[in-house]
Amino acid sequence: MSAPLPGTGSPIEDADTASALLLPGSDASASGAVPAGRHWAGGVAPGGFRGVARRYRRNRLAMLGLVVVAALAVVAALAPWITPYDPAEQNLRNTLAPPSAEHWFGTDVLGRDLYSEILHGTRLAMAVSLATVFLSLLIGVALGALAGFKGGRWDAVIGRTIDVFLAFPLLVGAILVVRAAGGGLVAVVAALVALGWMTTARLARGQVLALREAEYVEAARSIGAGSGRIVLRHILPNAVAPVLVYAFTNIGVVVVALASLSYLGVGAEAEVPGWGRLISQATPFLRVPGKEHLWLAPSLAIVVTTLAFAFVADGLRDALDPRLRGG
């Protein structure tokens, strides 16, 4: 969860990132954060969100990812009504059954319908990943903006805190936190947030550092605008675009982390259908002919979900890049 933004270097070291990604409709003028020759009248960028949407639609992989993400959201919302069986319903007379018209993905070791379990696993994966990324964004952007705008001791303390948290391995740290909290999905989200906000904070800090001396920020200071208004109204709207791109990539990372914890039996209760748990119970059958469906279906669910969010993130990065706005 601490990987750098795809397509860039370190969130702090890549100084060009600060002026490379801007949200249309922000308060930036044609100064430091805005490419030369791009004057935004009234806070609306040329093309605005329509231009962003047009560039996004040109990226076929991004559109494919968006369609898959939308389908996953629908499945997650409607899972209790579209699954043919209760995912907890056992049928010990029909265990390890191959895919059929009755059970599309077959049944597991306890005779539960794999198709129903995977659909409910989508609900779990989407809920945990979105909650984790949203909370990580709140913490990371707040601390990163504070460190970048205030500087000095604030920057030093927050920077060293980030270094300390980055020293903990994600899975090992998450296991310790979840075990100490007694397990449960709330503990899983808390663990992943506690160990996943640092890269967002570094990225936000680098953006704010690059933007806080821009001419439009100095103009706001000259007319008496307070620090809070400057950060919220003038800096963050221009700094948030690369953070959002990273957030979409991070959703896929959280899905993989959740599956890893579930595979190890940490976090969600045993009766909660998680993709990692499905792979774990299929492990003894990896080399058994005719039992590939036990691990293949949940593995593909993880891969497809992760790739879909990665494609969306790549599309957003390209659509929000001012260097591509001429197209």
How would you portray this structure in words?
63% of the residues lie in helices and 0% in strands. The chain contains twelve helices and no strands. It is mainly α and 327 residues long. The chain is elongated, with a radius of gyration of 23 Å.
Topology:
Elements: H1 17-20, H2 48-58, H3 60-82, H4 114-150, H5 152-166, H6 170-181, H7 185-194, H8 198-211, H9 215-222, H10 227-263, H11 275-282, H12 293-320
Rg (C-alpha, Å): 23 Å
Distance between the first and last residues' Cα? 33 Å
Overall number of strands? 0
The helix content, as a percent range, equals: 55-70%
Count of DSSP-assigned helices? 12
Strand content: under 5%
Unreliable stretches covering 5 or more consecutive residues? 1-46
Give the SSE order as H and E letters. HHHHHHHHHHHH
Q: How would you characterize the largest beta sheet? A: none
Structural class: mainly alpha
Mean pLDDT comes to 82
Shape: elongated
